């Protein structure tokens, strides 16, 4: 019989031996800074290292070019995790203690925020360490690591779920960088839905009976308002109706983004094509449906008023998170065994330099206390409840929740440093947060705490008698019988869902001038011109 402690130690030893290699991998992904649905180099880097370590890798899983599904083993419990690697437009920053977007690109190019470079690398670390330990000790298990692109629009996980990639999983161990070290308990994240509304104007001349026109001169012919006006009406009408979508007795949000119009028109030609994206988050699927009903009505009315046709292209629909106390407790015990991160002088000095450059008095320890301590799941829940209405059981949104309806799932939280405020209400500029996220001395400690904790948890699930069975019994109880049970919620997207990878998402492009961001590289500043 395999001795669990020996397998655990082998996993930890593997991480220690490979820290430098994996730290370099994280820097590589951070440097790519590829945004949602366009993470080509990042995905290729993951596929390369996973194959080197003996995994089989399906690239482009779920009809998503930058997703992957990696597998090792063919028997025993099926244990899963995921790596994310998308960056966020408008967050470009170098690893320096002053504001400095990456050189040679538009200042509003993408950069890693949370950062997902760290999130993905820690999950990779845990999976590779677990595989090495299982192989060394002959543990029978199947390991699956999913490459999940476009997390910032909650993109790939609902698609993987709908297309059957999560079928047959026995447990999933996932994590997220956080300003503290804990494990998600009873309060999980809510639902995130996103849709792109398109307005098309295919018959602008049919707006007015031509017989009524006193002249047939092209410049004088009346045409319908067109798609740009439809998009503006959609934007304005939704602003007016936002207060009536759902009472503000609980936290829900609705945001929009103009993808642009395809009309680059001249004179009085009606724009033919425009798109606007809406994304909304709430704690209850019924609220999500109510918000969509209002949006759909607004789109219909805007189209009718402007001589257009309205269409919807769904980007994503997630469910809400399902807790699993047994797996939370198992992971919390392992987080305690690993311990909180500690930070060397290089990281602390970098934080002090940021403070100095902001005109602040540098602090001996510039980081908030919670990044070097452990917070119990119960205390974490208490803190979250202070921000929720009494009836709410979920907050914000994140697509890890998709895994929780297919198998017992735990969400570990481990630290990435945040700077300590010099006074109540002080807010550091965003560039400071971004710069710290690319500094190995600042992010490696939390990244490897996460990697070690997840590896130990997967080892326990495969080797500790009764551990996996307890998690699965709770999963069956909460879902009314497991997958397909009376309380189970299935994927919200259809199995034949067409991933929205062909929409006009921001990306890097190659031009005769070299590699650039979606917006051309300006000669001066942001290229905005003179102040008005």
> How would a textbook summarize the main sheet?
7 strands, mixed
Which stretches are low in confidence, meaning pLDDT under 50 for 5 or more residues running?
none
| Strand element count | 14
Distance between termini? 76 Å
What is the residue-averaged pLDDT? Answer: 93
* Strand residues, percent: 15-25%
Secondary-structure element order, as H and E? HHEEEHEHEEEHEEHEHHHEEHHHEE
Structural class by sheet pairing and helices: alpha/beta
Number of helices: 12
Overall form: globular
Task: Specify Rg, calculated over alpha carbons.
Answer: 25 Å
In helices, the fraction of residues equals: 25-40%
Layout: helices, strands, pairs:
Blueprint: H1 4-32, H2 40-52, E1 56-59, E2 68-72, E3 78-83, H3 116-137, E4 142-147, H4 156-162, E5 171-178, E6 182-183, E7 188-200, H5 227-241, E8 253-261, E9 273-282, H6 285-306, E10 309-317, H7 325-338, H8 345-357, H9 377-385, E11 394-397, E12 409-415, H10 430-437, H11 440-463, H12 467-479, E13 509-511, E14 514-516
Parallel strand pairs: 3-4, 3-5, 5-12, 7-11
Antiparallel strand pairs: 1-2, 2-4, 6-12, 7-9, 7-10, 8-9, 13-14
């Amino acid at each position: 019989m395999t001795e669990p402690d020996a397998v655990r130690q082998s996993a930890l030893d593997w991480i220690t031996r490979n820290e430098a290699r994996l730290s370099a991998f994280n820097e590589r992904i951070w440097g790519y800074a590829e945004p949602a649905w366009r993470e080509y180099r990042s995905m290729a880097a993951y596929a390369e290292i996973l194959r080197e370590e003996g995994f089989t890798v399906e690239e482009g899983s779920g009809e998503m070019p930058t997703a992957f599904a990696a597998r090792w083993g063919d028997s025993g419990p099926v244990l899963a995790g995921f790596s994310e690697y998308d960056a966020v437009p408008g967050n470009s920053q170098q690893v320096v203690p002053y504001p400095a977007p990456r050189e040679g690109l538009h200042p509003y190019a993408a950069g890693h925020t949370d950062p997902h470079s760290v999130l993905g690398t820690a999950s990779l670390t845990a999976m590779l360490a677990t595989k090495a330990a299982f192989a060394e000790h002959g543990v029978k298990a199947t390991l699956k690591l999913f490459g999940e692109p476009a997390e910032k629009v909650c993109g790939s996980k609902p698609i993987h779920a709908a297309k059957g990639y999560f079928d047959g999983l026995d447990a999933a161990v996932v994590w997220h960088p956080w300003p503290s070290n804990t494990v998600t308990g009873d309060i999980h994240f809510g639902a995130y839905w996103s849709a792109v509304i398109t307005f098309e104007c295919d018959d602008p001349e049919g707006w007015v009976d031509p017989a009524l026109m006193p002249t047939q001169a092209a410049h004088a012919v009346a045409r319908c308002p067109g798609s740009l006006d439809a998009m503006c009406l959609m934007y304005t009408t939704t602003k007016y109706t936002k207060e009536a979508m759902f009472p503000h007795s609980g936290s829900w949000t609705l945001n929009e983004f103009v993808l642009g119009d395809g009309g680059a028109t001249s004179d009085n030609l009606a724009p033919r094509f425009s798109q606007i994206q809406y994304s909304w988050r709430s704690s209850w699927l019924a609220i999500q449906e109510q918000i969509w009903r209002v949006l759909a009505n607004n789109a219909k009315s805007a189209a009718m008023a402007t001589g257009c046709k309205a269409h919807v292209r769904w980007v994503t629909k997630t469910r809400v998170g399902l807790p699993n106390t047994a797996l939370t407790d198992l992971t919390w015990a392992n987080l305690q065994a690993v311990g909180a991160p500690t930070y060397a002088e290089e990281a602390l000095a970098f934080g002090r330099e940021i403070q100095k450059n902001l005109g602040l008095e540098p602090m001996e320890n510039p980081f908030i206390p919670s990044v070097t301590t452990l917070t119990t799941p119960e205390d974490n829940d208490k803190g979250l409840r202070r921000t929720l209405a009494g009836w709410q059981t979920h907050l914000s949104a994140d697509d890890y929740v998709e895994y929780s309806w297919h198998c017992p799932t735990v969400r570990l939280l481990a630290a990435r440093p945040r700077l300590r405020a010099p006074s109540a209400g002080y807010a550091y500029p965003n560039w400071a947060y971004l710069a710290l996220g690319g500094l190995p001395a600042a992010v490696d400690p939390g990244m490897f705490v996460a990697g070690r904790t997840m590896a130990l948890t997967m080892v326990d699930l495969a080797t500790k008698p009764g551990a996996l069975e307890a998690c699965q019994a709770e999963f069956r109880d909460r879902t009314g019988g497991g997958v397909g049970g009376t309380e189970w919620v299935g994927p919200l997207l259809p199995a034949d869902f067409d991933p929205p990878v062909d929409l006009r998402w921001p990306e890097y492009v190659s031009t005769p001038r070299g590699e650039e961001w979606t917006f051309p590289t300006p000669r001066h500043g942001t290229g905005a011109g003179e102040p008005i």
